[in-house]
Amino acid sequence: MSPAEFEKTKEKVRSLVVEHMDFSKETGDEEVFGLIDDMLLLLPEKATISLPERVKLRREIYYSLKKLDIIQEYLEDDSVTEIMINGSEGIFIERNGIVEKSDKKFTKGGRLDDIVQQIVACCNRAVNEANPIADARLPSGERVNIVLPPVSLIGPVITIRRFPAVPITMERLLELKSVSSEAATFLKRLVEAGYNIFISGGTGSGKTTFLNALSQYIPPKERIITIEDSAELRLLHAENLVRLEARVSNTPDSKPVTIRDLIKTALRMRPERIVVGECRGEEALDMLQAMNTGHDGSLSTGHANSSADMLGRLETMVLTGADLPLRAVRSQIASGIDIIVHLGRLRDGSRKVLEITEITGIRDGEITLNVLFSLKNAHLEKTGSLKNVDKLIKAFGEDAVGEIG
After folding, report:
1. Which CATH architecture has domain 170-404?
2. How far is Cα 235 from Cα 315, in angstroms, rounded to an integer?
3. What angle do CA 152, 157, 162 make, to 5 degrees?
4. Any bridge partners for residue 370, and if so which?
5. CA distances from 339 to 3, 170, 178 (A)
6. Mean pLDDT of 294-322
7. Are 283 and 320 in contact (CB under 8 A)?
8. Mean pLDDT for the chain?
9. Quick one: CA dihedral 387, 390, 395, 397, positive or negative?
10. Which one of 18, 80, 140, 322 is most buried, counting C-beta atoms within 10 A?
């Protein structure tokens, strides 16, 4: 059976199944497969369909009825880390850091539009011509961004960032050589001691993955509050965990709940650690204020090209939320954040820690940095010693300073 004949047969069987389905009740998976088998038997050309083709037909028709159609295969493939849908004609996937074009295409007739609505319905979001941009997540945790016409000129654009079924631990990052064992031990002690750590990097550099791995070093009995646009963090070891997710305004009657709102309310929930998935705007001010009012050990991430660039981005973000003198903003940053971990994606697609930098204070109006680890010749090497050791000594005693150097 040629690819064109296969698609024609699939659409024919799917139409027959839809005709016989009872949409007034929930149809179970076994019932759907039974209907597909029954409709296959009604085809005049059933004798020409091979067993592998029959298996493939059953799976793809089931995916189109109960799952996310042709992209479901990629959602179940652990080697796929990103799915990019550029309208009905173009689907691209990323495997092992390499982007390739899929041979799959959506059929005409609004199926892609149906999938868009299916995705946003899972997390109580709305997207339409009036509100053509939405962030969402799938029940299995994948992060989704959707852009619709008229903003998109090529039809619905869907970008799905996939995360491993089992969260990547620091041990796994060591196996992947994303970080050195010396740097991992160093960061472990800093997290345990309550240093405020900010993770920076470009798109796809692994910030959320690294944040999740670092969070596993937080003592399990401490009360942790995570704050995210779309819930992605999975702190499986935490016993006293509160997860908060921002909400957009879907209707005129619903009030949006922003990251700023969640940080402010988190301060009233007796947090011992606050973990903000990503700072993108004026919420950076609230996060810094939380760090400066006794909530040590807080963690967050942000987009930047370097550790120094992250400081400039933070200044800009804070200034969008308050009319403050630049000197005051820099003072907030320098006293609030202790460590910046900068990640990057190399040409071979691997994600690595490029630099670990300590914020040491302000000199002549500028924030001063102390580079502790730096990537040289593909190896993360120690380049300096920690200067702010007060939290380390308070947590573990003076001997701890000698342990990490």
Report:
1. 3-Layer(aba) Sandwich (3.40)
2. 29
3. 150
4. 358
5. 55, 18, 18
6. 93
7. no
8. 89
9. positive
10. 80
* pLDDT (mean) for 256-276: 93
Separation CA 64–CA 14 (nearest Å)? 8
DSSP string for residues in 358-370 = EEEEEETTEEEEE
What is the pTM for the complete model shown?
0.79
How would you class 64 by CB atoms within 10 Å of its CB: exposed for 0-12, middle for 13-18, buried for 19 or more?
A: buried
How does DSSP classify residue 78? T
CATH, domain 68-162, list 2.170.150.40, 1.20.58.340, 1.20.1560.10, 3.30.450.370: 3.30.450.370
HSE, side-chain direction, 13 A CA sphere, residue 363: 5
Q: Token match 């309550």: residue?
A: 194
Neighbours of 189 (CB within 10 A): 19
- pLDDT tens column, 102-155: 988 887 656 899 899 989 888 778 889 988 998 888 888 888 999 999 999 999
Strand order in the sheet with 197-201: 240-245, 223-228, 273-276, 299-303, 197-201, 339-345, 351-363, 366-376, 379-382
Nearby residues of 95 by Cβ (< 8 Å), 6 or more positions away: 79, 80, 81
pLDDT tens-digit map of 57-83: 888 888 888 888 889 999 989 889 999
Please compute, for residue 212, the number of CA atoms within 13 A of its CA located in the half-sphere on the CB side.
Answer: 20
Q: Is 323 helix (H, G, I), strand (E, B) or coil?
A: coil
- Cis bond upstream, residue 167 (ω within 30): no
Domain ranges of the chain: 1-66, 68-162, 170-404
Rg (CA), the chain: 25
